[in-house]
Amino acid sequence: MKSVNGYKKTFAMAIILSIIVSVFFWANMEIVSSGESPGIPLKVKNKLCYVNLKDERSHMNKTTDLKMIYFVTPTYPRPEQVPELTRLAHTLMHVPRLHWIIADDQPACSDIVSDILRRSGLPYTHISSPKPYIYKESNIPRGVANRRASLTWLRDNVQDGVLYFGDDDNTVDLQLFDEIRQTKKVSMFPVGLIGTYGVSTPVVKDGKVVAFFDSWPGSRTFPVDMAGFAVNIEFLKPSASMPYIAGHEEDRFLVSLGLKLDEIEPLAANCSKVLVWHTKTAKYKKPSLKINLEKFNDSPKYGDFVSLLKETSRLGMAYLSSSNGTKTYVIRNRRQYETTGGLL
Amino acid sequence: MKSVNGYKKTFAMAIILSIIVSVFFWANMEIVSSGESPGIPLKVKNKLCYVNLKDERSHMNKTTDLKMIYFVTPTYPRPEQVPELTRLAHTLMHVPRLHWIIADDQPACSDIVSDILRRSGLPYTHISSPKPYIYKESNIPRGVANRRASLTWLRDNVQDGVLYFGDDDNTVDLQLFDEIRQTKKVSMFPVGLIGTYGVSTPVVKDGKVVAFFDSWPGSRTFPVDMAGFAVNIEFLKPSASMPYIAGHEEDRFLVSLGLKLDEIEPLAANCSKVLVWHTKTAKYKKPSLKINLEKFNDSPKYGDFVSLLKETSRLGMAYLSSSNGTKTYVIRNRRQYETTGGLL
Description:
Two copies of one chain form a homodimer. Chain A is an alpha/beta fold. The first copy, chain A, has three domains: about 1-30; about 30-275, Spore Coat Polysaccharide Biosynthesis Protein SpsA, Chain A (Alpha-Beta Complex); about 290-344, no CATH class. Helix content of chain A is about 30%, strand content about 25%. Chain A is built from nine helices and 20 strands. In chain A, strands 3-6-5-4-7-13-9-14 form an eight-stranded mixed beta sheet, sandwiched between helices. A three-stranded antiparallel beta sheet of chain A has the order 10-11-12, with no helix packed on it. In chain A, strands 17-16-18 form a three-stranded parallel beta sheet, with helices on one face. In chain A, helix 2 (about 80-90) runs parallel beside helix 3. The first copy, chain A, is globular, with a radius of gyration of 23 Å. At the A-B interface, helix 2, strand 11, strand 12, helix 7 and helix 9 of A face helix 2, strand 11, strand 12, helix 7 and helix 9 of B.
């Protein structure tokens, strides 16, 4: 028994060392545009924040030989980021053999994102993938740098499994995971709440995809939403790439795979069911509050309240300032309220 | 052994019979306003659609003696209803000893809601609780009829446990469930993304709630959000009621319980953490599509596509009409598209 344990320990050490080495190299790597927009300086510096290959979910059967699903989520800081990732985590935590890749829009590794990944118990990869400088000013195209960085990590670290792009505000029925896990090349399925048709879907005839029903053709060969397809990682050729062209990310990516119409595998009962929705969360206008926290530091009685205010600011739900912003009040009872500073 | 089994069967039969009988009475019952808006005809006809007391989640320990949490969700039909309830189900499915009460705004029992409840594996109660006629024209106050009907069911059927009002678009951290389960009378905690302060919370001093931080005082004794408190069902007096007054539902309900400020139990590390968020999903404008499905009925080749269109309509994501609405197209390839009817 002792020698088996010895082997196990050596093996574990070897894995840990190789992760550390690859993290080091990757963190210093620069991803260069593969050329679909020549002349534009797309150099960005990505960082691999953390990789956890262990499934730490106690209720989940881990000895299964199911194919791994790599669920790629681009994200960016905003008041809704923590709740979005929290409820998406609750969905993914039900799925066996799922590795969650979150690629964040920020130059630094976000503790907030790390915490959510760690608490999920899922195997994960946390990437910091800031937008190239030239796109800094506009929000479009959103999520491309993140997906490109995730694809690079997959190409360098993963031999097989299934890739799925799932935004942090999408809703996915658990059944979809069972279905996409069987993807041989590229599978497709309907997505609800897209464009002006209510749904975007391939049209299936005799079990084959023959056309698409999507309210924005956009001169696309594959007019589908990012959440409307999954890809077997063995089919991810070195040529696979995603352009910085809003509205054409999905199509150009699928074209770059060399996908042919008759290779598409229709899922969700031959594209007759909706198992994923393009839900969008209403933007919460991040408020600026005028609160002098230093005044509170001298009075530890309200320490919990001050901690909450700091947490609110840390989670990106409000700006706090001692000089600018909305004047804030606390309410003692229905007839009596006073400025927050007046609490002291 | 045989006689023990015999007893078990008799006991199970007795329980099933009493459920059927109470369902029958309840379905024919009318709830009359308890009088906080005298003179307004608040009579509504509620229906108890289904009750399932069995926990059918295979991964969940069911022999625990934890207190039951009754999670009350008002809902109403809209394009986002199915995804909202689906992802909320994914959160609740992680919580041991939780009974989900969904009260729908419709006069009929919705199959769509039933399906989601059944698939969750949770114990549940499905109520149809239409708004009183006088509020039909306005959307405000939303969810009151539903919460009142749920309270009536709880009062008639449940002796102990904890009540929590959770809307279908809220986000709840799993830790909150562990905390509210210990509620003795009424517990309170911060809610993120509320009003213009980013958060709404009780202010705690020396472990006691002494004031509230909420951007809309509204002359309320307890200026808190619906998701900001939980109630021990033993504390739900017969006087407990919720008014049809927008913005005052929470406060009047808590006042009707006879709650005193020093009885409030602060949770979430003395109200210093955010464990629930008032996320709102952006409204998807339900489209009207001009599609003549009858034409397709004659041509079974596109049966799967027709099924999807019917499903889209059934789930409330689009109106379909053979005479009115947006003209729809299908895309054969990037250069060729034709009207949906032209498929044939």
